[in-house]
Every structure is written in C-alpha cells, then in structure tokens.
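Troubleshooting log. The previous structure file for this entry was overwritten by mistake, so regenerating from the original sequence record. Sequence copied from the archived sheet and checked twice against the printout by T.R.
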Amino acid sequence: MPNWRLKAPLAHEARSLYADQSLGSALGLVCNKNEAEFMPLTIGLIGYGHFGAFLHDLAQRYLPDATLKIHSGRREPDGVQFFPLEEVAACDAVVLSVPISAYAATLAKIDPHMRPDGVVIDIATVKKYTMDLLQTARPARPFVAMHPMFGPESYAKREGDVSGLRIVVTGHSLAPSHYGALSEKLAAVGFQVIEMTADAHDQELAETLFLTHYIGQVIAHGGFERTDIDTVSFGFLMDAVDSVRHDGQLFEEVCRYNPYCHQVIERFDKSDRHVRDAMLKLEPPEH
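Regenerated output below.
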C-alpha cells in the first residue's frame, strides 16, 4: 500500500507550496506549516448510495491516513462517520457522489461552507453538464472532473485488483504540476488515467456504458435469466446485465443529461429492426 505522507526531508517544498494547498488536496495531503511536514487531508464525501459506499471503501484502502467525513440525507450525523453538510463541505477535498440531477443544488448548498482552496471532485457519469456547472460557478472553485469507469460490481469481480481500471479526466483547474502529481499518484496505485474532453467522453459513454445499460435493461425487463446450459458468451452477456440491473436511476439520468444517448437509442433500434426483419423473413423448415 503506497504511503503518500511526505515528511521532513521535503520541508523546504512544504513551505514553498503552503500558499496553494489545492496541491495537497489533490494529492491527498495537507501541509502543516508549523511542523513543516505534509499531514493527512480531510475528505468530504457527499452522498452515500451504492457508489458512495464504494468510494468509502476505496478511501479506507488507499488513503488510510486521511480523515473521511460523510454527509448523507438518509443518515443522521453521529460525529464519527456521518457529519452535517456544512462540516463536510469544509474539508480539503469534497467528492460529490450525488445524482446528476442534484449537482446544481448540491454545489449551491456547499459553496458557503467551502474553504477558499477546497477542491471539488466531480465523479458524475455525465461530464459536459457537470463541468459546465463547475466552470461557471462563482466564486470559482478548484475542481477536478473525472469519471471512474468501474464500480463496486466490477471491483468485486476482480477481487479488489485495480490494475488497469480506467479513470477518465475531462478537465480541472489545478496547476499543471499539481495535476501531474495527482495523475502520478493514481497511476502508482494501478489506475489508468485517460484524458479527453467532456464532449468526447459523453459521446463515447453513450456508445458504450449507456448502450450496455440499455441492452441490460431490455434483457432484465424481458425476464431473461441464466440457465444450466449457458454458453460462455451468454454468461458474459448476463454478467453485463447483472452489473447494471440495479442502476435504474443512473440509467435514466444518463439518458436525460447526455444528449448523445438519444442518438444511440435510435441507431440501436434501427439496427434491431433490420436484424429482426431479416430473421422474420426466413422461411420455416419443411416437415
């Protein structure tokens, strides 16, 4: 497990970087000016659904020295794990694990409580919409917009091996050197960082993840299940169905906020009609 705490040998760097703690936030570190060392940061996690709980597990594994504070509308603050929104928003880095439809309202709620150098971490599945919110926010906040291309199901299937799992970054407002350090830390853990524009991400996501969701929802709605004689390929298909079976809200929100999804639906339906018509035209066998 990597140790991201930088001690006294880098004290001179700590002093020179103290004026911009957004670097520390991005790296998972905070500079303690008095002790001339980097200390663990505080991470605020807003939202504790299926994916939020997964992020909690990842933070405990890869940032064991960090202090994690969670806010959930479904959990009462206990001062141990769950905290009031204003306290979570005041952390060094604030991760938004909320529905896409709640992004604008959540940003408005946390803004009065954020530190001037607090970094907003956007992990939404749709990137153009959320990046527009972050880039037009006033006052401007340091942010990193990313999309982890995996979830708790795929993580479990790999038995916790994150090697090669992709994290797409579509934009940020950190200094280049600070962002480079963050990318290096993610790569050191095993993640593959891919950079692309928010628009390119949304277009490719509509043709991949959304298409998987679409087909998975159709199969699940049709009541198709595994059998005792499944082929390997059918098993893979049902693995995909199982991975999205319980993500109905995400499926609907991606379709709503990603304009490319409607194009994918039309394209898929056109192809489906073509294949279906070709199959229905086949003559039945003679008896």
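The beta strands are 29-32, 37-40, 42-46, 67-71, 93-96, 119-122, 143-148, 166-172, 192-195. Archived copy saved in two places this time.
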